[in-house]
Design brief:
This protein folds into 2 domains: 383 residues, Rossmann fold (3-Layer(aba) Sandwich), CATH 3.40.50; 101 residues, GMP Synthetase, Chain A, domain 3 (2-Layer Sandwich), CATH 3.30.300. Helix content is 29%, strand content 24%. The protein has 16 helices and 27 strands. The longest helix is centred in the first third of the chain and has 18 residues.
Length: 562
């Protein structure tokens, strides 16, 4: 390791955390195995009132892994997970890894054409989902349109407490898909091997074999699969858990409302909780009233979330009816955390709320403010253990800039992806030969090693912590016959961090209302991707060579905000 001058963050490192801590060389599923061995009778999962112990979860993972292997899953087989937060997600995730497979995370809100792209790109033939019509019907239609051949379907009523299960079957029948078991649709519960069964061991190389394909826009363009190895996932979980100084293994309760299919939640909620032997209190979606009731009744101690959730809690007029005092440690990610929100939430709960930074390509956490020691407002903190940050000249990624100068944030560490799935040219654009990852973000590192993100090179829009890709939105808008040209950008939004805005030029002789276009996009884009603002213009700005000029509109909107 170089001297402290090359690593200015070392002098600022929080007490109790070692930057050069040893990391475990093991497959990602070993995170669960270790906690099953250490805390077999401790609660592991809680879902709408029903609980599973670590022993029970470990057994279900083994039994499903056996079933998957009998189905033909071998080393490297890619299996899609299209699920909200629920026990099926956690159990299926670790079972896929234990069977030797690769998890491909699919957002249940994605439109059909987006799912088709991801399924074809990853060559997924099997997807695990729920029997809810909203999910089943959308996915079942895709069989024959892409590589998808079968669904493994879990029953929603089967993972509820007895009384709620009966009520669900009585009063929510309309929400459940009508389906029959056949070669294309298998029952999740019937795939389980007998209690006590164990899968055939798979000889995985943690630093080489894939654990997760996490789709992202990368620095530009259409969504690409970030290849996260077992070592990437395990390392980032250990780094994140070590950062939570004071968390007591086997005694914490983590409220998981951010969705596990999002890379931030996968690591900072699910995997970190498993590493700590914590109980994961799952909510299937964000509903402010449910979140506040759960905090009051079930007393979580850890709460990872995106800034918009913290903001929504603080702005609830009925907040005084609830108790949030059990929360001790929170991490915010996915979008910039306003300083005012951080301070107000800490004052309300007595917790420590820190902001982290990362990308899908870094599994995802790369930096975070310390939970003990100096917590710099407006900063995304210090590099995690074994992580190096270098700020490089914007016109020369090989040249490092001086402290407090702007440049591109580059990252090196055990959590950095292997590359993009089947896209060597795209990988070469972001991975430097010496192992540094170019993030596409403009940042500053001060003399104490704290990093601030000041701008984004990439076009990607961060809406509520989700990646929204302008090109994808533009392609959907162009499907309307009245549209001649369009440009989509992200604009500042106090609630969601950024919002999607579309600028549209119509074809001659055509008329179109914003409401009509929004309705047209409903089955083509997920709710997070649909433009919140639509502006029609007679002409859109162009560059000197005639290309649509997105930069001009970004600057125009920035001037309005200023």
């Amino acid at each position: 390791m170089s001297g402290a001058r090359s690593f200015p963050w070392l002098a600022s490192y929080p007490a109790g955390v070692s930057w050069d801590m040893p990391l475990t060389d093991a497959p990602a599923y070993a995170l669960l195995d270790a906690s099953v061995a250490a805390y077999p009778d401790h609660p592991c999962l809680e879902f709408l009132g029903r609980r599973w112990s670590y022993r029970e979860v470990g057994d279900l993972v083994n039994r499903l892994a056996v079933g998957l292997q009998q189905l033909g899953v071998t080393q490297g087989t890619r299996i899609g997970l299209c699920l909200p937060n629920c026990p099926y997600y956690v159990i299926s995730y670790f079972a896929i890894l234990k069977a030797g497979g690769v998890v491909v995370n699919l957002n249940p809100l994605y439109a059909e054409r987006e799912l088709i792209h991801l399924l074809n790109d990853s060559a997924v033939e099997t997807v695990i989902t729920l029997d809810l019509a909203l999910l089943h019907d959308k996915l079942f239609k895709l069989i024959g349109q892409c590589t998808l051949k079968r669904l493994i379907i879990g029953g929603m009523a089967d993972c509820l407490p007895c009384a709620k299960s009966i009520l669900f079957r009585l009063f929510k029948r309309g929400d459940v898909a009508k389906w029959q078991k056949d070669s294309q649709r298998l029952c999740w519960q019937e795939l389980l091997a007998p209690t006590g069964a164990r899968p055939h061991p798979v000889a995985l190389e943690p630093h080489r074999d894939l654990a997760v394909l996490q789709y992202t826009g990368g620095t530009t363009g259409v969504a690409k699969g970030a290849m996260l190895s077992h070592a990437n996932i395990y390392a980032n979980t250990e780094q994140s858990a070590a950062w939570f100084v004071g968390a007591v293994p086997g005694q914490e309760r983590l409220l998981a409302v951010i969705p596990f299919f999002h890379v931030f939640a996968m690591t900072a909620a699910m995997n970190m909780a498993i590493k700590l032997g914590a109980e994961i209190i799952m909510l299937p979606r964000f509903d402010l009233r449910d979140v506040l009731k759960t905090m009051t009744r079930k007393k979580p101690t850890l709460f990872p979330a995106v800034p918009s959730i913290f903001t929504a809690i603080l702005n609830d007029p009925a907040l005084g009816r609830y108790s949030l005092s059990s929360i001790r440690r929170c991490i915010s990610g996915g979008a910039p955390l306003p300083v005012e929100i951080k301070q107000r939430f800490e004052a309300l709960t007595g917790c420590v709320l820190v902001e982290g930074y990362g990308l899908s390509e870094t599994s995802p956490v790369a930096t975070c403010n310390p939970l003990v020691g100096l917590n710099k407002a407006g900063s995304v903190g210090l590099p995690l253990p074994r992580t190096e940050i270098s700020i490089r000249a914007l016109d020369n990624p090989e040249q490092e800039v001086a402290a407090s100068e702007r440049g591109e944030v580059c990252i090196k560490g055990p959590q950095v992806m292997l590359g993009y799935w089947n896209r060597p040219e795209d990988t070469a654009k972001v991975m430097l030969p010496d192992g540094w990852l170019r993030t596409g973000d403009v940042g500053i590192m001060d003399e104490q090693g704290y990093i601030s993100i000041v701008d984004r090179i990439k076009d990607m829009i961060l809406y509520n912590g989700y990646n929204v890709y302008p090109r994808n939105v533009e392609e959907a808008i162009y499907l309307h016959p009245a549209v001649a040209e369009c440009i989509v950008i992200g604009i500042t939004d106090a609630k969601t961090g950024q919002a999607v805005k579309a600028f549209v030029k119509l074809r001659n002789g055509h008329t179109l209302e914003a409401e009509t276009l929004t309705e047209f996009l409903k089955d083509k884009l997920s709710p997070m991707e649909r433009p919140r603002h639509i502006e029609f213009r007679a002409e859109l700005p162009k560059t000197m060579i005639g290309k649509l000029n997105k930069k001009a509109l970004i600057e125009e909107e920035a001037a309005k905000s200023a």
